[in-house]
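Give me the fold.
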Amino acid sequence: MRDLNGRVAVVTGASRGIGRGVARALGERGATVYVTGRTAGAGELSVDATARLVDGAGGRGIPVAVDHGDDAQVAALFERVAEEQGHLDILVNNVYKIPDPPAWSGGFWEHPLSIWDDQVGIGLRAHYVASWHAAPLLFKADGAGVIVNVSSPGGQRYHFNAAYGAGKAGLDRLTADMATDLADRGVAAVALYPGVVATEFARGAAEQFGAALDRAQTPLFVGRCLAALVAAPDLDERSGTIQWVDDLAAEFGVIDEQGVQPPRSVNGPATVPAELLFRLTAHTGDESRVTIPDAPHGTRVVVGVAGGTFDGPRLRGTVADAPAGDWVTVRDNGTLEVDVRLVLRTEDGAHVLMTYTGIGWRRPDHSIDVRTAPQFATGDDRYTWLNDVQGVALGRLKDGTVTYDVYRLV
């Protein structure tokens, strides 16, 4: 598939990791890819080595040594693109600096102030700087230009440390606001959420801590999902949204270099394994829907539940008919806040209250992707273990039916 033939891309931070996978995947589709990073030369983890992979995949790789903490070097990169190509079609902001030593955990006061500059300065400011330089070139693209910001579920819930989360949450907001600014210029901006990815760094950490990466995504798999996204005919409708690699893989049938699609991830750090509790399907009742316009945080839609089921290894049963919760529209592009309460009746007669809050995004097919943090409450001795569960739920609402995979973090 060479549907990006003739397209020009810049992939930042591509000497290794996700950036390398993205560059290679764009090459598979025929793109010309400027590969940036600090490391050049004959080494395996260098921009030159990645450029050769792009060439071997069928594209054209152009290595450029760039320190994205140096604005002058970033400016020179885009001046070169302008001189050699005259335009830019795709900017992938992926560059990131992992603190040394890595800040896996601990209070923010326990880390040196430099981790903020590493994770926010490079992981957020550098994306803004690259996008600022790229925008005039994207406006000249023959077709839809796009900025893809490689982000993380750490923008929504705690991962590793406070600076990491601030950087990722800021990047998600930057993406949404860029999309607003670019709406009339024919350029889209989207954020990409990979799952656990078996990068060189992650493999080293997994070996150090004895963690398994057998269910992880590969950098090339993430890259192929991104390439499918930027080639999608409805790209402009996705502008301003967060696109999950899991969802893109399912939508476009993406496989990795082993010819398989990795199991769906709970999109948490590799150090937080998860157990599937159950899959829940519930139906909303249109007759009980109440809309409250102009509420303090947006239009509030309260709905009821018209039954449903849940089924898993440790519990199964039905969802009771009851008032359920609401969706709060907080952005014109359809981003939602979710606040829901369900009553679960197990097949052996227990009643469990399940509450969850989270966020959702409208998809082009009018369905809604939802990510929530469920909590449980019950007085039944057989299920009181649920009261202590820390969970995550990945779901989709379509045509009045919501389906969730509910996980317990272990």
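The radius of gyration is 22 Å.
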